[in-house]
Amino acid sequence: MKKLFSILLMSMILCSTLFANGSKETASSSLDTWPQEPITVICPWAVGGVADLVNRKAAVYGQELLGQPVLATNELGAGGNVALTNFLKNKANAYNLIFGGEGAFSIAPNVDGKEAIMFTYDDYVPVMNMYSATFVMTADAKLNITNLDELKAYGKDHKCKVAVNGIAGSEAFIAKALFKELGIELTLVSYNGANLALNAVSKGETEFALSHQSQAKGAVEAGIITPVTVFSDKAVSNEVFKDVKPVGDYGITSFFPNTCFLLARKGTSPEVISKIRNAYLEIMQKEDMKKLFSQLMIEPSTWTAEDMNNHIAHVTQIVKDNN
Fold first, then answer.
1. Which of 9, 178, 284, 287 has a Cα-to-Cα distance from 297 of 20 to 30 A?
2. Of 95, 92, 47, which Cα lies nearest the Cα of 71?
3. Do domains 39-132+257-321 and 135-250 have the same CATH topology?
4. Burial level of 7, CB count in 10 A (0-12/13-18/19+)?
């Protein structure tokens, strides 16, 4: 009986060992063959916006470079915070990815209403920065304001209304910081998308708006709105925005490039992160992606995870310094 019991015990141990080893091999194999299902990349901002256009164009190459279709989708609400909150339902190595940036991780957690933020930057793993962009502030052309000196003179006798994409986003913060520095009283008017914000100033609902350059391009060319400044330390000069002076020329330091991070859920393996990053870096080299970036007036990025982490920390410090 003892001999039989020993044989059974050894058999159980052997089976357990084989099962454990088999599990490890399966787990390793699943990472090697990731993805085995279509991938969904969620843009938490408006359809037709810069991030949405980049997402949809990049998704075209999913099958070619990742072996599975990539589905580009949108989930709106609270300037992106709804989608980023819902994304926490995903587990590591899931087939869902999401966009995010400094607005959600540096600004929203450090301004009024921060109690409603249910996530932190540490809940995600940065894969890559899809692009960097320079914001432009535009004005109703009837005001004839084309630089910050003219804006400051106008602001002495007027409380300014500025249209922005979300009350706790990047545009809203740099607008508040700028007007505070200039000593001008302002009212922020929030819209669910930069295009809607631009429509507001074009219709005369507000006097000013902040947006990406490409979003303002048509109205600037039509003479409906005029560029006032760009949020950079370098002037912008192209076929649409000719020699627009940057806020840096006026000694303003509370600005930063707008970013669009591609993110995975916390705990996603380095092998999966590397596979996604390498695929998207290759996607960014496609000629039609380069053409799209040129049309959108944004810059491709090769930032590392450390670069992205540093950006979030840098903007967080700027926000805290301005509270």
1. 178
2. 95
3. yes
4. exposed
CA of 151: how far to CAs of 138, 139, 155, 211, 234, in Å? 11, 9, 6, 17, 19
Closest alpha carbon to 247 in 297, 174, 170 = 174
Q: Which amino acid is at 46?
A: A
Q: Which of the four pLDDT bands, split at 50, 70 and 90, describes residue 30?
A: low
Specify the amino acid at residue 70.
V
Please, what CATH class does the domain formed by 39-132+257-321 belong to?
alpha beta
- Among residues 136, 145, 130, which one has the least CA distance to residue 163? 136
Average the pLDDT over 83-99 and give the result: 97
Class (C level, CATH) for 135-250:
alpha beta
pLDDT mean across residues, the chain: 89
Q: What is the distance between the alpha carbons of residues 56 and 205, in angstroms, rounded to a whole number?
A: 31
Angle at 150 between CA 146 and CA 152, to 5 degrees: 130
The closest of 179, 226, 171 to 197, measured between CA atoms, is 171
Domain spans, the chain: 39-132+257-321, 135-250
pTM, 2 dp:
0.87
Q: What is the pLDDT of residues 176-222, one digit of tens each?
A: 999 999 999 999 999 888 888 999 999 999 999 999 999 999 999 99
What tokens does 134 get? 């320079």
